[in-house]
Specification:
Elements (H helix, E strand, L loop, with lengths): L3 H6 L5 E2 L4 H21 L6 E2 L9 H12 L3 H7 L2 H5 L2 H8 L5 H8 L1 H10 L3 H24 L2
Parallel strand pairs: 1-2
């Protein structure tokens, strides 16, 4: 799986804001339970607070991702191709795939920073259209998995 390093390098849960304090608090409240689940179910990954270069993930975390993806059948794998990008995180993708997270909560978690920015500065029509498409993608993926019995 040649792209696994890139998936982790771009996973939003691995990169946290250093400020403002309210955003830091929200990220911790929403994302930390996911991080703890990942650590207990698979392997602890690396993260960065604030501006930083790409975070190198431990081999055990990458192996866990590889093992999970290799366990998918063709249909579940097809459903998974767009969900990590829409969710912003391979970890949210897994929770959604397992049925432990609904589409609305996955979208809210993935869009936490954007929602915070909207609260601060208001809505942008183009951004809102993009967010609606992401929400639809996540909901469609969850529905597809439901049809597969996942």
């Amino acid at each position: 799986m040649g792209g696994d390093r890139q998936i982790c390098r771009e996973d939003l849960v691995c990169y946290r804001a250093a400020s403002p304090p309210e955003l830091v608090r929200r990220q911790h409240a929403v994302w930390q339970p996911l991080v703890e689940w990942v650590a207990s179910a698979m392997a602890r990954g690396s993260r960065c607070d604030g501006r930083c270069p790409a975070v190198r993930q431990p081999a055990a975390a990458l192996d866990s991702i590889r093992h999970a993806v290799e366990s998918y059948d063709d249909w579940a794998l097809a459903a998974s191709t767009w969900r990590p990008a829409a969710c912003g995180s391979v970890w949210w993708h897994w929770r959604l795939a397992e049925g432990r997270l609904d589409a609305a909560h996955a979208f809210a978690a993935a869009q936490l920073e954007e929602s915070f920015e909207i609260e601060q500065w208001g809505e942008d029509a183009e951004q809102m259209q993009h967010r609606a498409l992401l929400a639809d993608d996540i909901a469609a993926a969850r529905h597809f998995l439901t049809l597969l019995g996942a």
